[in-house]
Amino acid sequence: MSILLQTIGLTAQYGDFRALFGVDIELNAGETVAIIGANGAGKSTLLRSITGVMVNAPEQVLHRGTPIGALPADQVMARGIAMVPEGRKLFPSLTVEENLLIGGQMRRVAGPWTLEAVYDLFPILRERRLNPGTALSGGQQQMVAIGRALMSNPEILLCDEISLGLAPVVIRDIYAAMPRIKASGASVIIVEQDIGQALRVADRVYCMMEGRVTLTGAAATISREAIHTAYFGDAA
Amino acid sequence: MARTYRVTTRTRAGQITGLVALALVALGVVLPAFVPRGVILDLFFILTMLTLAQLWNLLAGYGGLVSVGQQAFVGIGAYAMFAAVILWGMNPVPAILVGGGVAVLLAVPSAFFAFRLQGAYFAIGTWVVAEITRLSIAQWKALGGGTGTSLPREATGNIMGVDLVRSLFGVREAAARDILAYWLALALAVVTIGAIYMLLRNRLGLALAAVRDNTEAARSVGVDAGRLKWVVYLLTALGTGLTGALIHLQTARISPDAAFSVTNWTAYVIFIVVIGGIGTIEGPILGVLVFFALQTLLADYGTWYLLALGLIGIAVMLFAPRGLWGLISARTGIHLFPVQRRLLGQDQLKGD
Amino acid sequence: MIWIDTLVQGILLGGLYALFAAGLSLMFGIMRLVNLAHGDLIVLAAYLLLVLVTMTGMHPFVAVLIAAPVMFAIGWGLQRVVLNRTLGKDILPPLLVTFGLSVVLQNALLEGFTADSRRIPAGPLETASLDLGVVTVGVMPLLTFLTAVGVIIGLNQIFYRTALGRAFRATSDDPVTASLMGINPGRVFAVATGLAMVVVTIAALYLGMRSNFDPSIGPARLIYAFEAVIIGGLGSLWGTLAGGVIIGVAQTFGAAINPEWQILAGHIAFVVVLLIRPRGLFPRAND
User: Fold this and answer.
1) How many angstroms separate the CA atoms of B54 and B278, rounded?
2) Chain B residues within an 8 Å CB radius of C95
3) A38 burial via Cβ count (<10 Å: 0-12, 13-18, 19+)
4) The total number of structural domains that make up chain A
5) Of A173, B243, B251, C167, which one is least surrounded by beta carbons within 10 A?
6) In this structure, are residues A1 and A28 in contact, taking their beta carbons and an 8 Å threshold?
7) Best of C28, C92, C263 to disrupt the B interface by mutation (most B CBs within 10 Å)?
8) From the list C177, C179, C182, which residue is nearest A152 (CB)?
9) Which sequence spans correspond to the domains of chain B?
10) Cα–Cα distance between B229 and B241 in angstroms, integer?
11) Top-ranked range on mean pLDDT: pick from B29-38, B224-233, B257-266, B296-305
């Protein structure tokens, strides 16, 4: 299996506050990896470092072996790494359809994801295509955010807390789309607080606490006690 | 064991500065006895620009109210003084106070309008207010309309205090007027800087800093941001009006374009504050010295002088946004006018 | 009937002010950038047109086709090299830097062209007039107004129907998330300023043909432009046109009462509108 994306000893800080203390994670081609952990564990910082929103030392993040740690976000995206940001972050001045279109207008690559394909994935969006992006319910906005990221036919899809603030039935509907996304060829990293969903959809799991990876293993075989300890830092 | 604490802003450097400042002011008072008239006029210019700069710095640097319309108060203060002298026969020196008072009166409706606007809109709003004031004053035929007027001979020959100056220094009347104006400028500068320093040292200054940094948070701890803005704006208008009146007392001539000049009373002032260091009291002092030096060196070159000024201003804002004093202060950690508060514990109190 | 004439003159004058303001509205709307040198940039473009016309004898409208790309490049470079560095939460840096730029431009033009009043020769267009029955209008003012409308329609087309326009709006909303979409905010802003400069060139054409200009008139144009943008409301180009018309009509009515009151009337209209609607007539919902 080829390593698609790797972080090696990734460190990050906000001013004086150290958020990441040398994090090593790996994403192989075709895999889905979940990163779980409590609030403040550093999960979002990890994704921001990978996508270039935060700038780090070049060799701390490798994409197909090439150092990308110091690249700004637009250049990282051009390499086929797309992000569904925490909090959806739809553009209020754009309609649903325009939000989708803008996801795909900078990196024009042939692939399975087109506007029609996204509407097939999330049919409700076709009905709402001309509404302003932010006039939708939370779950529908999340669908737009995911579709927007897919429009660039990315090689790697990063999902930051897509279940945040959504009702369980809505979360289920959104995760129901995951198999089709995986089948289209994207390798996925999911950052999640909903451990159950994460384990159901992922091949491998990393658990983070206070800026460090505290546990890693196959989703199918990892034990609840191990997760509890890794998540909270004490025995279950 | 209970510890007692005291909050203080006093520092070694600050105390030394206080003594040096006292000495300089004393020197300034007796200076006319030793130096030629040209130097007195230069000092007058420096002191009045310094006062305007300190006031704008209070408004924009500390208060966060970026106004490009302060020339409204320079102009109205000057015109009010001229009106008091020409139309109501007042002596020019006390008429300066009228200038300050009228400036505050203008500041009230202008603040009412401008405070409805945020950020950049506020800046443009203050400029429009200044333009409206200028255009309205230019309609006042009794004071010369669009071309302006001069102080009449009876008024200039009768200025309060000039006779005293003449007897002290044995100079002719015109020179005595300049010395008097210089003294008034010195007094105004000292009072203004002193008042600003006092303001910032007490709770008002703390409140200002809080509002500038985060208005919502400041409100949540009980700071009345709205009232604070009014106080700062009115005080600044008062000082600016007084200075405008004094400046035009010395020139004894007024016209709408000169009294309400954006270049002289806003562009130069902003330049001084930015180059010197915005948000500090030391900054404008340094800035006015640099400005004066540049003007003296380049005055013959007209447009090149202004061009250089513009380029330097741009460069400073891009690469040294805290100005020259900011660079110096960052390197050496010196604060001549300390406004930062430190906590003194019991042990330190003993040795204090 | 004189009032109809005054009203129409005011509306057409508003077209000129809207042209001045459109470029500003673009920059302000996309970047929240207060460009205090905007008026001086219009004057710069006017001198550029003047040079092209007097050196080659070409018609001013043709000169625009050459001057526009030049001004685009100037705007693009200015944004990339200087103005992008000033963007951020503090409004002081862009204000002060563009202030300095204004001083530099005025004095550079003064050095290059002296303070003499100049005009772009427009031939018969300068005095031609059209009889519309109820009123007679000058062809130049009418053309100015129609051009303003055309420019605004064009800009709106770009904004709402092109990928570039999507990028403008998205970057204006949220530059960080826009960069996650592969958009480089710095480049987008540079294109926006370049585009604004193209509009400035068109405005300069009509400024220069219609009346005399010299290096010092920039700030006055700037004030009218700002008043139009602010009255109209941030982000609305049609609002900017409305703002320009309000100022224009106020000025012509003021002048009809007393010629010395023309400019004052415009400013007073600005104050009145803002007292009623501090965010302008058609402000964006999300600001």
Assistant:
1) 9
2) 66, 68, 120, 123
3) middle
4) 1
5) B251
6) yes
7) C92
8) C182
9) 7-261
10) 18
11) B257-266
Quickly tell me which residue has 């789309």 as its tokens: A177
Q: Could you tell me how many CB contacts below 8 A there are between chain A and chain C?
A: 68
Report helix, strand or coil for B128: helix
User: What is the residue whose two structure tokens read 């994670």?
Assistant: A25
Q: How does pLDDT run across C237-272, given as a tens digit for each residue? A: 999 999 999 999 999 999 999 998 999 999 999 999
Structural domains in chain C, CATH included, are: 2-276 (1.10.3470)
Q: Which helix (H) or strand (E) holds A217?
A: strand A212-218
Subunits in contact with chain B (3 or more CB pairs closer than 8 Å): C
- CATH no., domain B7-261: 1.10.3470
The Cα–Cα gap between B35 and B37 comes to 7
> Residues A157, A188: contact at Cβ < 8 Å?
yes
Residue A69, domain extent: 3-232
**Residue-wise pLDDT tens digits, A9-42:** 999 988 888 899 999 999 999 999 999 988 888 8
**For tokens 């540049």, what's the residue?**
B294
Q: Which residues of C touch A (CB under 8 A)?
A: 163, 166-167, 169-170, 172-174, 176-184, 284-286
* 3-class secondary-structure state, position C236: coil
Strands A156-160, A187-192: pairing is parallel
Neighbours of chain C (3+ CB pairs under 8 A): A, B
Q: Do chains A and B touch (3 or more CB pairs under 8 A)?
A: no
